[in-house]
């Protein structure tokens, strides 16, 4: 079953409606396409039990395509069914063998282009799919072609790719095409630092497809990068994000608050860091790693504000084993600053201390590198209190 999920994720877009699967004797092929469509809707809503049935239906569709005589491969409606099979996570090798056996017309750009797309031959796929007019296709198939074109365009023309993804969602709403298109759009918008639109589409994804079989991994990967954008620079902006956080499941909401808190802490938005960590604490087990992380961010923010004595004690109680590698450096740096502040002469002027994003190194995944980054983040803090 996991192999099928991986195949679907790699393809990025799945089958559409039954409209373009007609043959001289279309009943069985149309039935398989219709069944796939039904199962895709179930997968988009998180029905894990549909994965096995999906695999069986794909196998049945492959068998149906293999039995078709050469004459039917000249019919574009049959080729469209093969395109749907490929984009549903079907085996490229099976279609490649059928194409060689039946020698379909070379002008069948959509099928040959799709085969190139799922096989990773991007230049060939782009040259062929550029010749395909989306408006000439049935809506569901047009949505799939729009998705493929967007993926091929994304590295060089992100705005055009985002437009095509909007178009794909318009052509095929409610299913896995829309689900995949939303994921792709959010990733492109985050990369382009369009915080407003990324946040709006993120909420739309959660509300429509929060139970999708792809949602859990997608949210885990996207929440930290979305939070790192300037989406919460003040307490008012934190409150404005309620429309997003309130519809997340508790574990994702907790991760969302912690990601915002860490980003705010490193940017010197100390009130935001404390508020969102307190919100995360309310959703965490008191002895769990998430609670330890929240306590670290709260204490580090208060140390940066000069509240060193009680926060130094709190930092000393934290168990490093409960923290991520990325936060070990922050803990070491915050402890060091708290100790220094405790030794400052009363007349020493204090300002608001700002934590900065530490520079990355080649060994950033090591514990030593984490400590190095944390100390670098607190360099300005040390400068304010002297050597």
How would you characterize this protein structure?
- With 387 residues, this protein is mostly helical.
- It is built from 21 helices and no strands.
- It has helices at 2-11, 27-44, 50-67, 76-87, 92-102, 109-118, 122-129, 139-153, 158-171, 176-191, 195-209, 215-228, 235-240, 242-245, 250-266, 270-281, 289-304, 308-317, 325-342, 367-377, 379-385.
Strand content: under 5%
Mean pLDDT: 79
List SSEs in N-to-C order.
HHHHHHHHHHHHHHHHHHHHH
Over the alpha carbons, how many angstroms does the gyration radius reach? 26 Å
Question: Globular, elongated, flat, extended or rod-shaped: what is the shape?
Answer: elongated
Oligomer: single chain
Number of strands: 0
Work out the helicity level.
Answer: 55-70%
Poorly predicted runs are 1-26, 351-387
Report the end-to-end length measured between terminal Cα atoms: 60 Å
Structural class: mainly alpha
> What about the largest sheet?
none
| Count of runs of 4 or more consecutive helical residues | 21
List the helices and strands and how they pair.
Layout: H1 2-11, H2 27-44, H3 50-67, H4 76-87, H5 92-102, H6 109-118, H7 122-129, H8 139-153, H9 158-171, H10 176-191, H11 195-209, H12 215-228, H13 235-240, H14 242-245, H15 250-266, H16 270-281, H17 289-304, H18 308-317, H19 325-342, H20 367-377, H21 379-385
């Amino acid at each position: 079953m996991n192999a099928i999920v991986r195949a679907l994720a790699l393809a990025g877009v799945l089958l559409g409606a039954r409209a373009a699967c007609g043959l001289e004797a279309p009943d069985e092929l149309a039935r398989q396409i219709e069944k796939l469509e039904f199962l895709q809707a179930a997968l988009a809503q998180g029905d894990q039990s549909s994965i096995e049935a999906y695999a069986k239906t794909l196998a049945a569709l492959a068998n149906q395509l293999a039995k078709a005589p050469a004459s039917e491969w000249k019919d574009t409606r049959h080729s469209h069914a093969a395109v749907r099979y490929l984009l549903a996570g079907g085996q490229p090798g099976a279609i490649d063998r059928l194409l060689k056996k039946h020698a379909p017309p070379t002008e069948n750009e959509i099928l040959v282009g799709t085969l190139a797309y799922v096989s990773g031959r991007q230049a060939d796929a782009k040259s062929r799919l550029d010749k395909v007019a989306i408006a000439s296709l049935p809506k569901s198939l047009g949505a799939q072609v729009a998705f493929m074109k967007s993926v091929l365009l994304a590295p060089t023309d992100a705005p055009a790719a985002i437009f095509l993804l909007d178009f794909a969602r318009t052509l095929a709403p409610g299913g896995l095409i829309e689900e995949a298109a939303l994921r792709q759009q959010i990733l492109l918008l985050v990369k382009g630092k369009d915080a407003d639109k990324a946040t709006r589409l993120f909420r739309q994804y959660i509300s429509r497809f929060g139970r999708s079989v792809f949602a859990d991994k997608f949210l885990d990967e996207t929440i930290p990068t979305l939070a790192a954008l300037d989406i919460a620079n003040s307490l008012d902006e934190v409150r404005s994000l309620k429309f997003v956080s309130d519809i997340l499941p508790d574990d994702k909401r907790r991760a969302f608050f912690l990601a915002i808190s860490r980003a705010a802490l490193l940017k010197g938005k100390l009130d935001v860091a404390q508020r969102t960590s307190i919100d995360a604490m309310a959703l965490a087990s008191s002895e769990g790693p998430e609670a330890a992380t929240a306590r670290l961010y709260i204490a580090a923010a208060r140390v940066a504000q000069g509240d060193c004595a009680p926060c130094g004690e709190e930092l000393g109680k934290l168990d490093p084993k409960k923290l991520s590698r990325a936060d070990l450096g922050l803990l070491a740096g915050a402890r060091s600053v708290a100790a220094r502040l405790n030794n400052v002469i009363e007349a020493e002027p204090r300002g608001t201390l700002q934590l900065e994003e530490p520079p990355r190194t080649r060994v950033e995944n090591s514990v030593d590198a984490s400590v190095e980054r944390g100390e670098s983040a607190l360099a300005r803090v040390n400068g304010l209190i002297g050597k």
